[in-house]
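New here. Invent one.

***
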Amino acid sequence: MIAIYPGSFDPFHDGHMKIISKALKLFSKIYVVVTNNINKVHRTQIDLRFQKVKKILAHMSVVEVIINSDDLTSNVAKKYNANFMIRGIRNGEDLQYEIELSDANKMMNKDLETILFISDVDVRNISSTFISEIELYKNKK
């Protein structure tokens, strides 16, 4: 079975890696899709995020990192014959967002099922936004 794992990955962190590790127990191929989120201001250009994630995941032969600059996730899934989309959730707020996102993707691609993985407790409070804020603070010193 093939899955996609889309995200802005700005930056990629341990929480993302743990979701991939969980998903590898179910899927024979995972496309990690580095994408732009129209609801976020990205600190790092998509090409640099793509290169960084590709380097981090290079040792995983069944994981392929791809870039998506401007297509709908539902279309990317079709292009790569993926019927599953992997997502991670940390809390109820994430769950509500992921339900809405799943519904929207399902309207565009009736064959795309969303699989939610609950983040491990040790990384549940980690978010890319939080990590970016810490990096900004460190760089100001």
